[in-house]
Design goal:
With 314 residues, the chain is of the alpha/beta class. Helix content is 37%, strand content 15%. The two termini are 23 Å apart.
């Protein structure tokens, strides 16, 4: 069997991200807050005129956007899911945003903490606030429109609305340029995203996950969505049979733990799928495919290119 794996450079994203991905949300930014230039978080808590001199970010995509909006020099610590830009990777770590401790954040003496709706536990957020440090909570988008709303809202928080508008213009342009119409370049493949950190963590993604719009922008059908999966379900032979993916996408990190294509095919049900029979497996870094950051168009373009290498006639 030919292994059609395409990989990119390994990213240092925390393994515990597996437990966080099930909680994605996609409510739009508060338009009233944007119009009045007052930030109201996804948790309903307002942050007014924050001191942005010492910022701690609690997810990799938030880190990247803060840098893009021009406040990178104010970031004093990030969580471990930060993989870009280079100057952010070497910053001190505040822990794991999905398993937060107040002490891990407060030791960096922040004046503002930027979190999202996956940051947990809530008690840690309240402890940080009780210490007098504002915590701004943003939504985790699962659509491109939600992504643009998030950038706009972050611009309001950081008093960088002009930079946010420019970032959104760039994002829209790059996403459109990277995307393809279904069937335009190849037969529409059924693509399943399977999250794995090894044989003990195997989840099939479906409706409401960040991977769906990327798959669709690349001209594919999300096999998990088509099979009726909501959020995530454990990978079972029955779930894989219902999804019947032509292509499997897995995290690069988990793929390595499994031992590559042979380890993946040893998972019950995988070898029986069209993707398994043809070795049509793509492995990408977690941080590139599981979060909507400034580099999302690169993920679309990479998937388009890899799909173009498969024997999928238009």
């Amino acid at each position: 069997m030919t292994d059609l794996l395409r990989t990119t450079g390994l990213s240092a994203v925390a393994a515990v991200l597996a437990l966080a991905i099930v909680g994605c949300s996609d409510s739009s930014a508060d338009t009233t807050a944007i119009e009045t230039s007052a930030f109201v978080g996804a948790d309903g808590v307002a942050v007014e005129a924050p001191d942005t001199s010492r910022i701690v970010t609690l997810s990799g995509d938030l880190t990247e956007f803060v840098f893009e909006l021009g406040l990178g020099s104010s970031v004093v610590a990030t969580d471990v899911t930060t993989v870009a830009p280079d100057e952010a990777v070497t910053l001190p770590k505040a822990g794991i945003g999905r398993f937060l401790t107040a002490e891990g954040v407060l030791k960096h003496d922040p004046t503002l903490v930027i979190a999202d709706t996956q940051t947990s536990p809530a008690t840690a957020i309240e402890q940080i606030r009780a210490a007098g440090v504002p915590v701004a909570v943003l939504d985790v988008p699962t659509t491109f429109d939600g992504l643009y709303d998030k950038v706009t809202t972050l611009g309001v928080l950081l008093d960088a609305s002009n930079a946010a508008s420019e970032a959104n213009e760039r994002l829209r342009s790059e996403i459109v340029a990277a995307s393809v119409e279904p069937g335009a370049a190849y037969a529409v493949p059924r693509i399943a995203y399977v999250y794995t950190r090894g044989p003990d963590v195997m989840l099939l993604f479906g409706e409401g996950m960040t991977t769906t719009p990327v798959i669709e922008a690349a001209g594919g059908l999300d096999a998990g969505v088509e099979a009726g999966v909501q959020k995530t379900v454990p990978v079972t032979p029955e779930a894989l049979a219902a999804a019947a993916p032509d292509v499997l996408i897995v995290p690069e990190e988990g793929y390595a733990v499994l031992g590559g294509i042979d380890g993946l095919l040893a998972i019950p049900g995988v070898s029986a799928t069209p993707a398994g029979r043809n070795g049509a497996v793509f492995a990408y870094p977690e941080g590139d495919f599981l979060t909507f950051g400034p580099r999302i168009a690169d993920s679309i373009a990479r998937l388009v290119a890899d799909l173009g290498s498969l024997p999928l006639a238009p």
